[in-house]
Design a protein that fits this description.
Blueprint: E1 5-7, E2 12-13, E3 18-25, E4 30-31, E5 36-46, E6 51-52, E7 57-59, E8 66-68, E9 73-74, E10 79-81, E11 84-85, E12 90-91, E13 96-97, E14 102-103, E15 108-109, E16 114-115, E17 120-121, E18 125-129, E19 132-137, H1 141-158, H2 169-189
Parallel strand pairs: 1-3, 2-4, 3-5, 4-6, 5-7, 5-8, 6-9, 7-10, 8-11, 9-12, 10-13, 11-14, 12-15, 13-16, 14-17, 15-18
Antiparallel strand pairs: 18-19
């Protein structure tokens, strides 16, 4: 780790993660094993309640920083490079998001997708392919927010040396309660 880091004290950073340069990580976020975050110029900003999962790389572009919103899940083996990912997005396993791309809020990028330079993905999209394209318009707020919640709980457990956070009746009750809160928030936002 290096100077220029601003990491909220509520966030979980796995001991094998490597973070360099001007990087800000918001509250209750989690950075998992073997993640690399580098910012030799510009900046990387990761929002609150966001998870960057195992073996992912987050790096700045040559002309832009990298910005990941709140309640996002960057799943295993992703490359996030000089782009903007808005709130409540899920980036599937082994996906690549390139320089100048923007992923609109509440979107899903399917595993193995390649979002090329400068691509603008509208909010509420499901994107897949190489190169990626929008396959359908769907508000993914509920499932994306719940996935982020799962990793927030997991990160808090790992910080205490507890590695089985997703099992048992206590977790099941907590998950059911959280899902209800997320659905209520979704309905309020969308006047349902």
């Amino acid at each position: 780790m290096s100077s220029g880091l601003i990491i909220d004290k509520t966030s979980f950073l796995h001991k094998t993660s490597n973070i360099y340069g001007k990087v800000k990580i918001g509250s209750f976020s989690s950075i998992w094993p073997n993640v690399v975050i580098r910012s030799e110029m510009h900046e990387v900003i990761i929002g609150s309640h966001t998870n960057i999962q195992d073996f992912s790389m987050v790096h700045v572009g040559s002309s832009t920083g990298t910005y990941i919103g709140d309640y996002c899940s960057i799943t295993h083996h992703c490359t996030i490079h000089g782009c903007i990912i808005e709130d409540n997005c899920l980036i599937g396993i082994n996906s690549t998001i390139m320089d100048g791309a923007r992923i609109g809020k509440n979107s899903i990028v399917a595993g193995g997708s390649f979002v090329k330079e400068g691509m603008q993905i509208p909010e509420n999209s499901v994107v897949m392919g190489v190169p990626a394209s929008v396959k359908k318009n769907k508000n993914n707020f509920i499932q994306n927010r719940f996935n982020a919640f799962m990793y927030e709980i997991n990160g808090q457990a790992y910080s205490k040396g507890e590695y089985r956070a997703w099992e048992g009746k206590t977790f099941q009750k907590k998950a059911e309660k959280q899902m209800k809160l997320i659905i209520d928030e979704f309905e309020k936002i969308n006047n349902v």
